[in-house]
Amino acid sequence: MSSPGQSPTPSASSERRDEHGQTKKRKITRTKNGCLTCRKRRKLCDLDRPDCGACVRLGLECRWPEPLGDRTRRGSTTHTLNPARSEPGAQSHRVVCQSPTVTRNGDTQGEWQANSMYDLMGIMGESPAPVGAIDDTVGTMQQPLSNGPLLGSNIVPVHHPTTSGMTPFALGDLDNNTLADPLASLLDGVMFDEATLQLWAAGCLAIPATQTIDPFQSLGDLLRQPPAAPDTFTSLGTQDRSKPPATHPPPRSSPPAVSPHHAHLLKHYQASLSSLVSCTGDSETAPSAFAAFTKLAEASSSSEAGQGLQLSILAWAGRHMVNQGEIKFETISDKLGEKGMKIVMDRLESWGRRGEQVTETERMTLLAGALMVISFKICRGDVWGFDTLNAYLKLLSDSLYQVNSPGAPPDSMPFHFFENLVYHDLTSSETYAKGPIVPYSVLLTYSNPSSDYLNTLTGACFPVFCRFNRIATLASQRRQKSRGQSTRRPGDESVLWSDEELYDLVSSAREIEEELNEDKKQMEAMVKNKPSLSSHRFLHEAYRITGFMALRSFVLCEPPSSFGIHLLVRQSLSLLEEMWEKNLPGLCSIHLVLFVTALCCCKSDSAASQDGETGGDADCQRIERLYENMRNDYAFGNLSRSPKIYREVWERNQQGKVHVDWLDVIDDFGWELFLV
């Protein structure tokens, strides 16, 4: 019979006798079924409702979660994920999330963090590639468990560098009902991949009402939403935590849910990135052609090519956000880009090398996907790995765009992709070294000089931009002949320039110059008939002047110190600075203009600068300022690559007295540069 001073609880009584008997005190752990007061005190509870023995003895208010029976039954069914429903091959890291104040037995804050992390399971999509679990105690890579269950004790526990020693949630904002969440025990065995960990650690993930781990379903659902739908996220503090989180993709018959980070990436692509890289901006009369990519992605979401296009769109948007300072999207962007690239390249290989039959729609989707992959790599600052893509783009171009075709209207989806293809073709350094992808005869079929339609990437100057196709062809011919001449054997006269070859090269350059002069008259007549195009004259004139500089430098090899080139450099810089000051249309497409201007500029020595012969140093400073403005405003990785090339040219051209082939510098670096 218990004495009045003892607790009526048998466990408490036994514990007190142990203390009085000088025995070692038994370790006390919290039970998830006890009252809230005992949980908070980390004491055992005798489960005697409505007032447990410990609370009666200490005179404390005994509080219980409501309803206890329903919550425990519901929670017990979700403690173990079904391995059969987990995606095969998906590899994640098992995380030990522990704040600096967590005790050996765990506390309220640690368990609440576990619940929050478990809820994030449904947000992350499938990992694009298996990632081995990293044991940070030994620094070795473990083999990925590609076919193992989602939960298991054989996974090496690791601390992710972005979550170590961090307390992301405030305990003071929680009430006792939140602390009593029976799902707190689900921390054991929960795994996340690197992308989810980075997003969670940066605080950018919120808990949606319903979740999905399928990135294709998420993007498809986003594309079906009306444009005016608000992008809302469920608050973490107001979410109904009595409902267990989704642990597998919803059935195909039900409408898929939206993943928050995918929604954020797609919103950035549609609302910010598309208009940023469009000469038309937010114009309603000439909307951005980048909407054609999302429309095609939605229409072909059931095919592998459509899925690759979807992932590549999200990857490009994510990389651009990273360049703007949103570092938390770096891992997810790289993962989406790698998986999207793999899907696109696998389908291209099946069609291009294995001869698999592919419909025209799928070929168009593969073209769009390849262009998005290139845009992602350019934005990331990649300067390698474009050779295979260029080869497949050549095959796609020959298959989809032919000389005998009737062409396409400028506001159609095929023409939007064609313009994007031509733009990346004629701004690639590989084009000037080996020749363009799209033949000039095909350009004539799809280019309408009299059209006043505003294109997305070239504005009103698509015809004059197409002149760079012939300039690149002449530059590659001159380069190949010159390289053969420099490596010729004694007595081999076949590699020397003959009189006919020199005449053909120079006469072709003069012919293009005459066409550039005609383009100016054509533009003036167009502006006269349609005054609203007057602001687009600047980009047209900038491309026209760049054509003259490219002919004299890339084809005829004139040195930068010549007065003809120096005058063109001054005219180009004045145009670019005026466009920048007035924020005129086409600033997004001036990288090629600025780069060619920089190549034709020269750094003068101190004596020449004082005498005012060329003023090259002042011109170089103007170029550097324009490049800095572009890096700050457009945040593309390639804008930090191209200055290394023209600065090396400046170092080699002896204050502009000798011609230096910039393609030789590119070869020395081993790069392929896109001037977009």
Low-confidence stretches: 1-18, 68-190, 204-220, 222-258, 606-614
Number of strands: 4
Helix segment count? 27
Radius of gyration (CA) equals: 33 Å
How would you characterize the largest beta sheet? 2 strands, antiparallel
Category by helix and strand content: mainly alpha
Mean pLDDT, nearest integer?
74
Kindly estimate the percentage of residues that lie in beta strands according to DSSP.
Answer: under 5%
Q: Label the overall shape.
A: elongated
Cα-to-Cα separation, first versus last residue:
88 Å
Helix content: 40-55%
Could you give the order of strands across the largest sheet?
A: 1-4
Characterize the structure shown:
- This protein is an all-alpha fold and 676 residues long.
- 51% of the residues lie in helices and 1% in strands.
- The chain has 27 helices and four strands.
- The strands form two sheets. A two-stranded antiparallel sheet has the order 1-4.
- α11 runs parallel beside α13 (360-380) and α23 runs antiparallel to α25.
- The longest helix is centred in the last third of the chain and has 31 residues, at 499-529.
- The protein is elongated and about 110 Å long.
- The chain starts with 9 loop residues before the first helix and ends in a 7-residue tail after the last helix.
